[in-house]
From TrEMBL:
UniProt-recorded name of the protein: 2-keto-4-methylthiobutyrate aminotransferase
The family this protein is said to belong to: Belongs to the class-I pyridoxal-phosphate-dependent aminotransferase family.
Taxonomic path: Bacteria, Pseudomonadati, Pseudomonadota, Betaproteobacteria, Burkholderiales
Cofactors: pyridoxal 5'-phosphate
InterPro entries noted in UniProt: Aminotransferase_I/II_large, Kynurenine-oxoglutarate_AT, PyrdxlP-dep_Trfase, PyrdxlP-dep_Trfase_major, PyrdxlP-dep_Trfase_small
GO molecular function terms noted in the UniProt entry: kynurenine-oxoglutarate transaminase activity; pyridoxal phosphate binding
NCBIfam families, per the entry: PRK09082.1, PRK12414.1
UniProt keyword list: Aminotransferase, Pyridoxal phosphate, Transferase
Matching Pfam families: Aminotran_1_2
GO cellular component: cytoplasm
């Protein structure tokens, strides 16, 4: 068999979780909460199962859930998406990303990915036969920023798609209104489409606002906007997400979606629809995670780790160069095996080998877990 993805091995998230388990380390590597979701959400799903909502839903998703999502987007970002023709329920954000890319990237097309980048974008573009063009974020004491002049310079006549991610994994960077303007300047007058990964939309700190591309009419008209309930409701294992996109894009998305998964499990969709009637859980998420971020940052201040800004998401990046001269992979393995705290090397989010001396911690953990990790890190 000739591999379709010859450069791909097991994802760094699985590798580090396995190593954490083997070494009995506190796992601050792979991004997922170690606490449970709201029991009311479980009850809502169980109620749907008990009432017999257990057969295929509509291919596009349960209407009540699509309506709840449309209402939320309007309330939060001021754009109205038609629940019938512009919102589709997916098997997590991962399937939304793959499907969006498969439906618009043709063999030979170029797609721009901004690094560091979540690990599913590049393989998805390659599976579509596209050519990945990477642009690296600038790093300074102010954190990671997108150099839009370099993105503009990467655009060619073959560019079909630009992938953006805000709030950004792994850096936590949040795009600002002027970032959206810069992106609009780049795509104006072209037929470039946008894929906006907004799975951390409700994890924004210090009063900074999430700039969903749906707020920006010019960008929204060419964007697939992706989100995931896994992040928002602490249920990463449920793998339910959605894509919001103008009707013409959604129609093409659904052609691929119906042969990709066809539908996403029914009772979870009904449970989520009922649970979404109350906006409190996602409106309270910024404060919930900001407290954990602050607790974790405060604890790290006694170490020689240099803290990078953490504006959003549930990740904290640190520069460890005052502690060790090891490469990122080696340092991550050492920290896991010898100190007992698992992390993710940021180099895993780049195509070309590189070592910036930066690793990512996930702070979506119980306070006791964060404290246990801080106790182990205190000596560094
Ligand atoms: N995009 C980003 C930036 C993520 O961090 C994740 C979570 N791993 C995903 C997409 C995938 O989300 P899901 O688990 O809903 O497929
Ligand atoms: N999104 C999570 C992270 O960045 C994990 C995703 C995965 O395990 N594929 O850590």
């Amino acid at each position: 068999l000739v591999s379709r993805l010859p450069k791909v091995g097991t994802t760094i998230f699985s590798v580090m979780s396995a190593l954490a388990a083997e070494k009995g380390a506190v796992n601050l590597g792979q991004g997922f909460p170690d606490f449970d979701c709201d029991p009311a959400l479980v009850d809502a799903v169980a109620a749907a199962m008990r009432s017999g909502l257990n057969q295929y839903p509509l291919m596009t998703g349960v209407p009540a859930l699509r309506q709840a999502i449309a209402a939320k987007i309007t309330a939060m970002y001021g754009r109205s998406y038609d629940a019938g023709s512009e919102i589709t329920i997916t098997a997590g954000a991962t399937q939304a990303i793959l499907t969006a890319i498969l439906c618009c990237v043709h063999p030979g097309d170029e797609a721009i990915v901004i690094e560091p980048a979540y690990d599913s974008y590049v393989p998805a573009i390659e599976l579509a036969g596209g050519r990945v063009v990477t642009v690296q974020m600038d790093i300074s004491d102010a954190g990671y920023r997108v150099p839009w002049d370099k993105v503009a310079a990467a655009v060619t006549i073959k560019t079909r798609l630009i992938v953006v991610n805000t709030p950004h994994n792994p850096t936590g960077t949040i795009l600002r209104p002027d970032d959206l303007e810069a992106l609009a300047d780049i795509v104006r007058g072209t037929d470039i489409l946008l894929l906006s990964d907004e799975v951390y939309e409700h994890m924004v700190f210090d009063g900074v606002r999430h700039e969903s591309l749906s707020r920006h009419p010019e960008l929204a008209q060419r964007a697939f906007i992706v989100s995931s309930f896994g992040k928002t409701y602490h249920v990463t294992g449920w793998k339910v997400g959605y894509v919001a996109a103008p009707a013409a894009l959604t129609a093409e998305f659904r052609k691929v979606h119906q042969f990709n998964v066809f539908t996403v499990n029914t009772p979870v969709q009904h449970g989520l629809a009922a649970y979404m009637a109350n906006p409190a859980p996602y409106l309270e998420l910024p404060a919930f995670y900001q407290r954990k971020r602050d607790l974790f940052r405060e604890g790290l201040k006694t170490t020689r780790f240099k803290l990078l800004p953490a504006e959003g998401t549930y990740f904290q990046c640190v520069d460890y160069s005052a502690i060790s001269g090891m490469g990122e992979n080696e340092f991550a393995q050492w920290l896991t095996a010898e100190i007992g705290v698992a992390v993710i090397p940021v180099s895993a989010f780049y195509q070309e080998p590189r070592d910036s001396g930066i690793v990512r911690f996930c702070f979506a953990k119980r306070d006791e877990t964060l404290q246990a990790a801080l106790n182990k890190l205190a000596a560094l």
